[in-house]
Amino acid sequence: MLGPVILAASRSDKMRRFVSAAPGTKQVVARFIAGETVDDVVPIVQDLAARGLEVTLDVVGEDITTVEQSYAARDAYLELIGRLKELGLGARAEMSVKLSMFGQSLENGHELALANVRPVVAAAAEIGTTVTLDAEDHTTLDSMFAIHEELRKDFPQTGCVIQAYLFRTEEDARRLAANGSRVRIVKGAYKEPASVAIQDKAEIDKAYVRIMKILMDGEGYPMIGSHDPRLISIGQELARRAGRKLDEYEFQMLYGIRSEEQNRLAAEGHRMRVYTAYGTDWYGYFMRRLAEKPANLLFFVRSILTKG
């Protein structure tokens, strides 16, 4: 039951100040966040690529309040793409974006977010890579899917994310699988009401498996976002039954979590992509990682109680 409490704390300014000032915070944040700048993250991308891993990069930050901040988010991604181009890393690294950063919640937010994300998607295509639109809370999804559909007219490789715990997701998965989309499936990390989302963990896992099967049997490119060994094994079996080759789907895990398993899957020939976040506005992202796994929270609590 700690998950909802932590998710609520992720939007508390008071908790943000407390966590940021705690003596052990920097140590724990470094486990999940690859750095604050492009210069910090580039060596990590190079190291992961050298080990046969692929990357999706997320410039963290969500709750913007001005149009100028949405432009800054766009420009941060364009800077990142420029660096990937210089280093020849376009084939190994894609981008993940949250449309809330691009102004989705502001006045005329749908149009603003589309206008901001389009040049990012275009720049990514120019260096041989692509962008995946992250899923956020359920109130944003109709807009996200509409932007995804619009972008795919010119950039059909643009991906999107679906969340297994939402009741709507099986229908979304069928539609996306039929039209050949790149789709990442995750369990879901936002606090959602029982009217729109499954609340029981075991039932979420069952939904995840049903949705994986829809994607594997479809025409698109499934991206299995999970650290759960059982779900990974089921995903491999569903891919085999669907007759998919190893380059016709991929696994994705978060930077700093189950690194040995990431290396093992890559060594077996699977496409293994590491979701790598960086940036100064790390708090909301970090708190959701704590909410997803109690062991992460215990590790953090022990660290913040450490003096010096």
Structure description:
The protein has 308 residues and is an alpha/beta fold. It is 52% helix and 13% strand. The chain contains 13 helices and eight strands. The protein has helices at residues 2-9, 13-21, 25-32, 38-50, 67-87, 109-126, 141-152, 169-178, 201-217, 229-241, 259-267, 283-292, 294-304, and strands at residues 54-59, 93-97, 131-133, 159-163, 182-186, 221-225, 250-254, 272-278. Strands 1-2-3-4-5-6-7-8 form an eight-stranded parallel β-barrel, surrounded by seven helices. Helix 11 (259-267) links the parallel strand 7 and strand 8. Residues 303-308 have low confidence and may be disordered.
Shape: globular
Label the structural class.
alpha/beta
Instruction: Count the E strands.
Output: 8
What Rg do the Cα atoms give?
Answer: 18 Å
Rounded mean pLDDT score: 88
> How do the strands of the widest beta sheet line up side by side?
1-2-3-4-5-6-7-8
Largest sheet report = 8 strands, parallel, barrel
Give the number of helices. 13
Termini separation: 31 Å
Would you identify the regions where 5 or more consecutive residues have pLDDT less than 50? 303-308
Helix and strand sequence: HHHHEHEHEHEHEHEHEHEHH
How large is the share of residues in beta strands? 5-15%
What proportion of the residues is helical, as a percent range?
A: 40-55%
